Amino acid sequence: MKIALIHYRLILRGGLERRLINYSQWLQEQGHEVHIIVAKSSGEVTLPEGVQLHILSPGLMPKVFRQRYFDHLLGRFMRHNHFDKSLSLMRTSHQDAVLCPGNHLGFLKANGRRARTLSDREQIRADQLAFQRSKVVLAASKMMANEAIGWYHTPAEKVHILHPPVNDHLFHPELKQQQAVLRERYGLPADKRLFLFVSSSHKRKGLPLLLRCFAQATDTDSVLVIAGLPKVLSDLPNVIDLQFIPQMEELYAAVDFTIHPATYEPFGQIVSESLCCGTPVIVSDMVGAAEIIGNKEGLVIPLADEKLWLDTIRTIRQEAFHIAPGVAERKGLLVSQHMERMLDVI
């Protein structure tokens, strides 16, 4: 089949960008003709041989309208090119199926905000068109499915839950055997309980709550390790900011827990990646991936219960958890399982 994959950018950063590369590789390996359509490319990504890249640049269009203009260019491109199947990983309206890894109304409501700005209105409009015009909406979690149906009035029969896949060749439990070496490599203390916070949107991912908790836990062996951008300025002795680290699998293996008190997280791919590396997770009840966490694999804590977050950081021990090998396959998160279900649904 001739298949089109659509996203705004081709870059080595972010969960959706990794999925775009994984999708193209798997489809190419299955013998499909794969085309990637983006607005821009960093030039740092090496695509599988045979995958064709199309760049539809919005040029000097004002930032708030760039995705709308990209969607316009996409419509024109799709009218002049035939594809057997097309999938968009973003808010576009000229494809067979669209991912719903999040939505703007859900984000606003979770943060107690209303659509006041032009950017808010543009994002809601883009969500609405994407859900209306696509034949299939692939929601990242039950939370996303409910929001697409309830807030955007998307017909329930075309909404399907499809958890994001994880690369189990990259994220695997054998890495835990190198924990001491990895801690030394990243300058992390060998004798502390390390809590990994991964983020490129610190406020939404819950960093303010964590900083308040760790400020009250300086008398314990708990250390917060931050990986992501922007840089975090903190004078707390139990906070380490590594900034952006490409080899996230090594960090998951180096720490004791991955911690994610997000105020709104449609899924949270760091949860499945961490579990695949054998590292238990602590997440808020506003994280979509909470639905895949087993009793021995981590904790789900109410976002509003800051005292419970602090008590957990003070007392939790990794020995209380056990993550059996084969997490990705058991939970249907292998790239092959994900892709086969997605093609079947489309």
Q: Which geometry do the CA atoms define?
A: globular
Number of strands: 15
- Report low-confidence residues grouped into runs of 5 or more: none
Tell me about the largest β-sheet.
7 strands, parallel
Structural class: alpha/beta
- Rounded mean pLDDT is 95
- DSSP strand (E) fraction? 15-25%
In spatial order, strands of the major sheet run 5-3-1-6-7-8-9
- Count of separate DSSP helical elements: 13
Summary of the model, kept short:
By secondary structure, this protein is an alpha/beta fold. It is 35% helix and 18% strand.
3D architecture notes:
The structure is a single chain. The protein has helices at residues 15-29, 66-79, 104-110, 118-133, 142-150, 179-185, 202-205, 207-215, 248-254, 269-276, 306-315, 327-330, 335-345; strands at residues 2-6, 9-10, 33-38, 40-41, 52-55, 85-88, 97-100, 136-139, 159-161, 193-199, 222-228, 239-241, 257-260, 281-284, 298-301. Helix content is 35%, strand content 18%. It has a 7-stranded parallel β-sheet with strand order 5-3-1-6-7-8-9, with helices on both faces. Strands 12-11-10-13-14-15 form a 6-stranded parallel β-sheet, sandwiched between helices. α6 (179-185) packs across α9 and α8 (207-215) packs across α11 (306-315). The chain has 346 residues and is of the alpha/beta class.
